[in-house]
Please model this.
Amino acid sequence: MAEPKPRRNEPRLRPAPLLFEPAQVAEDPEHFFDLESIDDPRALLARATELTQAFRAATDRAVEFQAMAAAQLADPRRFDRLTPADIAEQAEWTEDYAKKMVEFGRDLMRGVEGPGHVDPV
Model:
């Protein structure tokens, strides 16, 4: 079960850093953040768990930034605003999902994340 996401007023947990892999190593499909070199199953579980949490946290944060960008692009005060269909095409979403992300982004920018708030993802 996934942990609840922190709200705007709560400090974010700092997961294990995601270190970029050198290009030569990244080309090897068997290589993944040096996990294949860990022989101890306890250490492997610990490091794989750290990476899982880091990827989840990064995904959650990236989705928030996507939503805020979508809301800004759809802002009716912009002379170059985009429609939900335009945003959906650019982000490779459905139009319904783009509408939800625009609303989610507006809520995030207003600082609204209460008990009734629904994350579109």
